[in-house]
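Retry 2 of 3 after timeout on previous attempt. Resubmitting structure tokens to design endpoint.
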């Protein structure tokens, strides 16, 4: 792996003087009022963020990100040429200093046991995808590259990758649109998706996670951490497949609802009429009841009153052709999405509801319930979704999911660990507001005791705990019999060595303090889906 990083660094060092000259010319032209130069400056700075970060010129990457922001002035504001020129001088100084940095001595991440798992890389930056391809190849993966957003879906169907790495800023079609396309089709919805991009604001990360991404990582990520995160996504995908195979079951997505209905000689979720893309209340209930008996799925009740926007048609256009949309009354609509689990659907549904709210310029609320096996009662699903809708409306939330975890109607349990009571109090309030039950532990020994006695579904783990550190807790968890809780490390320690060590010990995700509470909830949702 180090050879790949070194080769990428050599390519970056060789090309940097010409990149610097381009930036110099663009800053001068943009300062003279050339709008095309300002757009070119923004794009060039954005590419520099990715290339510098990937080759571990982190100072250059951070300064280039500031230059990219500076080249996108607020409406009515003018471009600050003087500040841009000063930044450019700092970028050169950072480059000359970091050029002599010794490559990291940490051992490479483990190579996947499975032979040559495929990773689909979607990035139009030649240097970036070259470096990523070589890095993943050395780690034991096979890399497939596409350079346009509109090519990603077809390539994902053809190569059936274990993981997709997706940039946000792509030609023809941006990464968020591509992600919605991937997560909205049964052939690709189950493929783990990681955004690997230079756009790393909190809003960008939340947008990606809400669409359904399994991870969101900056291009400046350490190469060893990237490989570990990719391997984690592969492991997460392999676990349910192995369990299903051992039990002789067909995993979700192995047989479509249409195929199941056809095999049984019954009706299928045939394409909706283009003239009326939704069903009447009685027709919806009949079709959804039949599908619920034949396959698993999720039922959603959406309250979105609007006199100006045809909500039923809007919903039908956003969903798959096989999904059912039913008209209820009083501004409510009912959806049935076959072969979708409620927890897996929730982030994408939240994104859809947020767009619907903006479209109709009115309050929107929804309740979600799901089944994980054929034979579910439609009436029970409808009752559960209706209860969840009532909670959503009373709390002023876009979406509430009816949960069956733990005791009847209980939500997943999250163990929060931190030796600072004030931090724990704040984190506890946010996690509870996200719909989870919580338990608290203020040292490592108490955390391990809580795991054995309370069996939480997930742990938010600080590394600097008294008595037993977070690393000790991770090591101990690895020795416990399955099923073990998912672990999200939340720590002020952001050094590369700490991050890679935590992943190597079995952490499922890693966030650095200070943190966004919304992103914490979104990442917990990904682990617990």
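Retry 2 succeeded. Sequence:
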């Amino acid at each position: 792996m180090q050879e790949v990083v070194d080769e990428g660094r050599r390519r970056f060092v060789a090309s940097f003087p010409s990149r610097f000259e381009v930036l110099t010319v663009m800053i001068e032209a943009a300062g003279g009022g050339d709008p095309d130069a300002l757009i070119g400056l923004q794009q060039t700075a954005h590419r520099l963020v990715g290339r510098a970060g990937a080759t571990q010129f982190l100072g250059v990457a951070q300064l280039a990100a500031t230059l990219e922001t500076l080249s996108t002035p607020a409406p009515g504001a003018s471009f600050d040429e003087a500040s841009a020129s000063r930044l450019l001088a700092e970028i050169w100084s950072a480059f000359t200093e970091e050029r002599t940095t010794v490559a990291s001595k940490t051992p490479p991440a483990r190579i996947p046991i499975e032979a040559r798992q495929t990773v689909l890389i979607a990035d139009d930056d030649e240097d970036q995808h070259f470096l990523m391809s070589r890095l993943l190849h050395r780690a034991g993966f096979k890399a497939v590259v596409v350079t346009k957003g509109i090519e990603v879906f077809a390539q994902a169907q053809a190569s059936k990758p274990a993981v997709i790495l997706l940039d946000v800023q792509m030609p023809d079609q941006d990464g968020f649109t591509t992600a919605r396309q991937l997560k909205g089709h049964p052939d690709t919805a189950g493929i783990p998706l990681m955004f690997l991009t230079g756009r790393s604001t909190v809003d960008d990360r939340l947008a990606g996670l809400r669409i359904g991404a399994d991870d969101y990582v900056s291009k400046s990520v350490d190469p060893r951490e990237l490989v570990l995160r990719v391997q984690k996504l592969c492991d997460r995908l392999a676990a349910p497949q192995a369990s299903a195979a051992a039990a002789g079951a067909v995993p979700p997505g192995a047989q479509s609802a249409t195929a199941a209905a056809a095999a049984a000689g019954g009706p299928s979720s045939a394409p909706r009429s283009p003239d009326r893309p939704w069903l009447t209340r009685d027709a919806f209930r009949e079709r959804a009841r039949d599908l619920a008996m034949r396959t698993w799925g999720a039922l959603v009740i959406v309250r979105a009153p609007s006199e100006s926007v045809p909500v039923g048609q809007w919903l039908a256009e956003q969903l798959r052709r096989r999904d059912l949309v039913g008209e209820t009354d009083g501004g409510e609509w009912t959806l049935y999405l076959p072969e979708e689990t409620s927890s897996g659907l929730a982030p994408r549904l939240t994104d859809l509801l947020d767009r619907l709210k903006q479209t109709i310029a009115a309050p929107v609320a929804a309740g979600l319930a799901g089944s994980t096996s054929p034979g579910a009662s439609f009436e029970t699903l409808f009752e559960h979704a209706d209860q969840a809708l009532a909670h959503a409306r009373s709390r002023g939330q876009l979406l509430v999911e009816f949960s069956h975890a733990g005791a009847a109607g209980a939500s997943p349990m999250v163990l929060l660990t931190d030796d600072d009571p004030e931090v724990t109090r704040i984190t506890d309030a946010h996690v509870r507001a996200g719909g989870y039950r919580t338990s608290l532990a203020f040292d490592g020994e108490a955390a391990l005791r809580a795991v054995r006695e309370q069996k939480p579904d997930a742990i938010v783990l600080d590394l600097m705990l008294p008595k037993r550190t977070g690393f000790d807790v991770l090591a101990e968890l690895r020795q416990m019999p399955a099923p073990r809780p998912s672990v999200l490390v939340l720590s002020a320690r952001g050094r590369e060595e700490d991050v890679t060590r935590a992943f190597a010990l079995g952490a499922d995700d890693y966030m650095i303090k200070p943190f966004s509470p919304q992103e914490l909830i979104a990442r917990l949702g990904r682990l617990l889906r």
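Attempt log closed. Residues 102-115, 243-272, 404-409 have pLDDT under 50 and may be disordered.
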